[in-house]
Structures are given as structure tokens and as C-alpha cells.
Amino acid sequence: MIKKINKTSYIFSAVVCVLLAFSACKTPSALEREVDLKELPQNFARGNADTTNTALIQWKEYFTDPYLTRLIDSALVNNQELNMMLQEIAVSKSEIRAKKGEYLPFVGFGAGAETEKVGRYTSQGASDANTDIRPGQEFPDPLPNYKFGLKATWELDIWKKLRNAKKAAVFNYLSSVEGRNFMVTQLVGEIAESYYELLALDNQLEIVNRNIEIQGNAYRIVRLQKEAARATGLAVSKFEAEVLHTKSLQFDIQQRIVEAENRINFLVGRFPQHVERSSEQLLTMVPKVIQAGIPAQLLENRTDVKQAELALEASKLNLKVAKARFYPSLGISAGVGFEAFNPKYLLDTPESLLYTIAGELTAPLINRNEIKASYASASAKQVQAVYDYEKTVLNAYIEVANQLAKVDNLSKSFDLKSQEVEALNRSVTISGQLFSSARADYMEVLMTQRDALESNFELVETKMDQMNAYVHMYQALGGGWN
């Protein structure tokens, strides 16, 4: 049995559908806004126009500490959030296959069996009773039916609705890949930052231990002086309190070390344990020279910028898909198979052979509010993606400019802090000698020791900030993920 298509009615329906579709597209007027970013400056605030870019260096060449590189290597394999992102990428990849399959023909195989009993005093029952299958052979009652065959359906993608949906899925997949790269950059930076913090805490603990020894010697001296009636009990109490205060700092720093170690362990994806490191060389570390390149390279290196760009392209295609829903869709269905009331007749041809072919043209005529709302939503999301892209590019440029200034200022600050520490360390020695010879009082000694301790702490923190600034600079330029 063949279903014939009424050409006149379909042509008329097509004309009506197209006219309605074009009028419908004008109803929710989409805000057409092209990406119109202002031209980026030719160079960064404190950089130059050299196209050499530190971001192109792989992180293993940028971070040369062997303990740190082992931690990063382990994190790239075991970090749970990164592995979750990999599963999201797999989901996005499957979405591409799903969208691709939608605009290809669907072919399926089916088989079935049924039994039908109709009333004798019905039109079908009366017709069956007066009809012979073969001369002298009436219809069985009840009437069984067996069938099997192939069926195909295909929507002709004349408005590229399905193909654009597939392209949008591709851009979403690529965006998720860039999201993973962005996460890698952040992960590398977080581990490096926590590692340098751990080195700084180790150095501060060593400074505290040295000061406890110095203050302990001063405390013993003032006790001897009290016994010799050269000092008062107030001086002894002050020195004792200072020693106790400094000892309490030990436990505060030890707690911060435990927390820093466990923060690294969490990023690496392992249970709490000691983090191997070498803390002796922190103050002598010299960060690599930063080459910021030119601002336009941020569009190539920054994964968040590329992710926003791909999301923008996907939003454009989604808008086209939403717009195509106003247009008529043309579908073709066909089937071929065998059907008979007795299995032994199933393969008898042409008596048991059946096939169908049909075409269907449909378009929304009444109550198109859902389609209009989807179109308006897709339009708003496209504009939102434009603003997000502009914001991401602007943020990338500002981050690099800020970090360049920070690297420069911290370098100068560290040099001055080093000179301050040397001067105060000399002052501690001098004040101790003067106190022993009764040429300085105990308050001068205490204040000098406290100033020296704070200055040493600040020097270590400045070096930690300097190393972290180089880490953040590497991240701001878009490095670390490749």
C-alpha cells in the first residue's frame, strides 16, 4: 500500500507556513549586537611590545623545583575536580554525536504478532465473512496477524536547524575543553602558591627558633644581673614574657604548616601526609624574567578568553536554531516488510509484501508562544555571551597590567627589606653587648629584638609574595595548561 502525497495541498501549506514563519521571526526582535571590542593597547602599562611570551613556556620549564614539579604532576592525574571536568568533556563529546544523529535518517527494525476478533454484525466482520482468501478458504476467526520489516524516518534539514544545533554542540565541547585547560592553569598556580607559602612558613619557624635562642640567652643574662643586684625583677619578668610570647609563635606557625600541607594534599588528591620540600633556598630564589608579549596574544593564550569566545559562537548558532523553529519542517517516512495471518505465508511475494512512503510538511500556526519565548531567550543569551566575552578580555588585560606592576614593586621592596633586616640584625648584636656592659636598658634590647623578629618575618613574606606574583603573572598570561 502506497500513501500518495497531495501536491496541491502541501504546496499551499508550505506557502502559508513560510509567510507565517517570517512574520513570527519579527515578533520577538532580537538585539543584534556584534562583538565590538575596543582595540587593545599596543603594550602593557609596564611591559613592551616584544612578542616573546612567557605563557608559551611549559610549566615544567617555568617551575624548576623538583619537589614542586612532582606535586603538580601528581595533581594533574589525581585531582578530583579536574577529573570531574574530564567527565563533563566526555558528556559534551557525546552531545555532538547525539546532535549529529538527529539530522541523519533513522532506520529501525520491527516485528510483531497479534490476534483480532471482530463482531460478525460489523462492517469488517461482514466483509471478512463474505471474502475468501483463496477459493473456498475463508478468513480465520479469530484473525491472527504476523509482521516484520524495516521503517525509516528522515527530517530534511532544509533550514539547517539540526546542523546548526550540531555545530553549537561542537562549540560547547570545545568550550568545555578550554574550561579544563583553564582549570589546569589554576591548579598549577594554586599548588605553586601553596608550596611557596609552605617554604615561607618553614623559614619563619626557623627565624622564631633562632630568636628563642637569642632571647633565652638575654633572659639568662638578666637573671644573673638581678642576682648581682644590677637588674630589677621587672626586667626579668619582661624578658621571660618575651621568651614565652616567641615560643607561642612556634605553635601558631606549626598549625599553619599543617594546614598548608593538607591544602596541597587536597589539591594533589591524597590523604594528609608530609609534603617533601627544600626550604633553605627560598630567600635566594630568583624568579625567571617575565616576557609579557603583546596584549593581542591574550586572545590566543588565555583559556578563559577562548572559552568565552567559543561560548559566544555557540550562542549565535543556538539563536539560528531557535529562529528555524518558526519555519516549516519536511519529514519523509518509509517502510518495507512482510505481513500475513499465517507465518507460513509471511515470505510469499508479492501477496505478503507491503511498503509505505509518505511526506509530511508541518509548521506552527496557532499558539507559537513557546517558540517565541525560546527565540527571545536565545537572543538574550547571545547578547549575554557578548558581554561576557568583553568582560573576560578586559579582565585579562587588567590582570596582566596589575601583575606586571606587582612583580616590579615587590622586587624593589624585597631589596629594601633585605637591607632593613641586615641593619636590625646588627642592632640586636649591638644592643646585647651594650646591655651586658650596662650601657643600654632592657627595654631597648627587647624592642630591638622584637623589631628584628618582625622585620625577618616581613622579609620572608615579601619573598613569598614575590614568588606568588610570578605565579600569578604566569596564570594571567594564560600559561600552565599546555
Overall description:
The protein has 482 residues and is α+β, with helices and mostly antiparallel strands. Helices cover 62% and strands 11% of the residues. It is built from eleven helices and six strands. It has helices spanning 7-25, 59-62, 66-78, 80-102, 123-129, 161-227, 233-268, 298-301, 303-324, 369-436, 442-476, and strands at residues 106-116, 132-134, 137-138, 143-156, 329-340, 353-362. The chain has a four-stranded antiparallel β-sheet with strand order 1-4-5-6. A hairpin with a 2-residue loop joins strand 2 (132-134) and strand 3. The longest helix is centred in the C-terminal third of the chain and has 68 residues, at 369-436. The model is unreliable at 1-38 and 45-49 (pLDDT under 50).
Summary, kept brief:
With 482 residues, the chain is α+β, with helices and mostly antiparallel strands. It has helices spanning 7-25, 59-62, 66-78, 80-102, 123-129, 161-227, 233-268, 298-301, 303-324, 369-436, 442-476, and strands at 106-116, 132-134, 137-138, 143-156, 329-340, 353-362.
Features:
single chain, 482 residues, alpha+beta, four-stranded antiparallel sheet, two-stranded antiparallel ribbon, 11 helices, elongated, disordered N terminus
Strand order in space, largest sheet: 1-4-5-6
Shape annotation: elongated
Rg over alpha carbons: 39 Å
User: Percent helix among the residues?
Assistant: 55-70%
> So what's the oligomer here?
single chain
Number of helices: 11
Please trace the helix and strand order, writing H or E for each element.
HHHHEHEEEHHHHEEHH
Compute the separation of the termini in Å: 61 Å
Mean residue pLDDT:
81
What is the number of strand segments? 6
